[in-house]
């Protein structure tokens, strides 16, 4: 199977950061997001990958090209570890191809742009702004890898899903299944698939697509006859919904954790999570975060005043320690407890 990765989007949810930098090239610690996606595909056994790009996405294409000048410089300076990392960006035996999407006509149209490279064959679709945390699920066994294995066994198209808060469902493709799926790896069959529903109050499901699909060759005919839907675009969701009316489409529940890096909060969460477990910088990064949080806790919502001389006396048995926790002032019952709170100088914290 070949994988199609659509990278032609403009990354509007991440503006202004993505005004000049492709969203897929935003770093998560020391690698761009797209690199994690390629690594996931390779771990699932996929060796041929098609990037559907845009004229503004040269940086994505260049990232997977060979940079002889850089490699020669690293070799000359005996930077062997860095050289190895740069050379492994595109692993041996993996082919990465590029095709342009000239107009932003939707995800379904983006997939159609890759058809000359895929042919009338089944294929995988991986959305590049959703990172699956490989520390919570082995990419070689779960999620995409398991979907590929099930497709090869059954011939059924596969969709990955996860439960989402009701308040977020209007931002995702919502899936209704024949049977409930509640545990990681559970499988059911699609009965309905709706792209970013406006009315979420009447939804009977809280399952949202996670951006991993294995699609049979039947999807090509569905894409060809799919009319523009939401925002006047050809939606992959609509094509899969149509396919599910006459072919079995399986849905499996995500194993592990995902990050929606197409949105600022999800991207920030991913950066912190990956940063904390970085082999090179993880410990220092954790200490830096703890220091920042400790300072923020002292600051509280507005201002804290720490009282001089160990405490501020209210009476013979009560001590006022103006050490703010959130919006509260801590009242201590004796001088000993005040000392434990380290109230020993006057400081105004803005």
Provide a descriptive summary of the structure in words.
- The chain is of the alpha+beta class and 350 residues long.
- The chain has 2 domains: 2-282, Spore Coat Polysaccharide Biosynthesis Protein SpsA, Chain A (Alpha-Beta Complex), CATH 3.90.550; 300-349, no CATH class.
- It is built from 12 helices and 18 strands.
- A 5-stranded mixed barrel has the order 8-11-9-10-12. Strands 15-16-17 form a 3-stranded antiparallel sheet.
- α8 (219-225) crosses α9 (236-243).
- The relative contact order is 0.12.
- This is UTP--glucose-1-phosphate uridylyltransferase.
Question: Keywords for this structure?
Answer:
alpha+beta, Spore Coat Polysaccharide Biosynthesis Protein SpsA, Chain A, single chain, five-stranded mixed barrel, disordered C terminus, 350 residues
CATH class of the largest domain: Alpha Beta
Mean pLDDT across residues: 85
Strand order of the largest sheet: 8-11-9-10-12
CATH topology of the largest domain: Spore Coat Polysaccharide Biosynthesis Protein SpsA, Chain A
Tell me the CATH superfamily of the largest domain: Spore Coat Polysaccharide Biosynthesis Protein SpsA, Chain A
Low-pLDDT stretches: 301-350
Query: Any idea what the radius of gyration is?
Result: 26 Å
The major β-sheet equals: 5 strands, mixed, barrel
Helix content: 25-40%
Give the N-to-C terminal Cα separation. Answer: 58 Å
Which series of helices and strands comes N to C? EEEHEHHHEHHEEHEEEEHHEEHHEEEEHE
- Which structural category do the helix and sheet elements fall into? alpha+beta
Q: How many extended strands? A: 18
């Amino acid at each position: 199977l070949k994988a199609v990765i659509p990278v032609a989007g403009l990354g509007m949810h991440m503006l202004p950061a993505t005004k000049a930098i492709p969203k897929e090239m935003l770093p998560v610690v020391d690698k761009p997001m797209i690199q994690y996606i390629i690594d996931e595909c390779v771990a699932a056994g996929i060796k041929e990958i098609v990037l559907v790009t845009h004229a503004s996405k040269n940086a994505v294409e260049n990232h997977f090209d060979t940079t002889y000048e850089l490699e020669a410089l690293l070799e000359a300076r005996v930077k062997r570890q860095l050289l190895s990392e740069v050379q492994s960006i595109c692993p041996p035996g993996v082919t990465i191809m590029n095709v342009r999407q000239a107009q932003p006509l939707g995800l379904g149209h983006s997939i159609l742009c890759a058809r000359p490279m895929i042919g009338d064959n089944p294929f995988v679709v991986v959305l590049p702004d959703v990172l699956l945390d490989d520390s919570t699920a082995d990419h070689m066994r779960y999620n995409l890898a398991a979907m590929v294995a099930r497709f090869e066994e059954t011939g059924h198209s596969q969709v990955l899903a996860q439960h989402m808060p009701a308040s977020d469902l209007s931002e995702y493709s919502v899936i209704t299944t024949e049977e409930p799926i509640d545990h990681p790896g559970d499988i059911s069959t699609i009965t309905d698939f709706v792209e970013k529903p406006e009315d979420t109050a009447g939804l009977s499901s809280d399952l949202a697509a996670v951006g991993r699909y294995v699609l049979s060759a039947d999807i090509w005919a569905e894409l060809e006859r799919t009319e523009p839907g939401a925002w006047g675009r050809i939606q992959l969701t609509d094509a899969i919904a149509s396919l599910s009316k006459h072919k079995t489409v399986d849905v499996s529940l995500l194993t592990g954790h995902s990050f929606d890096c197409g949105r600022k909060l999800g991207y920030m969460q991913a950066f912190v999570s990956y940063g904390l477990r970085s082999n090179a910088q993880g410990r220092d990064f954790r200490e830096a975060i703890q220091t920042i949080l400790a300072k923020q806790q002292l600051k509280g919502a507005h201002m804290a005043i720490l009282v001089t001389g160990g405490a501020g006396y209210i009476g013979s048995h009560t001590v006022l320690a103006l050490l703010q926790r959130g919006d509260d002032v801590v009242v201590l019952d004796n001088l000993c407890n005040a000392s434990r709170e380290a109230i020993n100088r006057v400081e105004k914290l803005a």
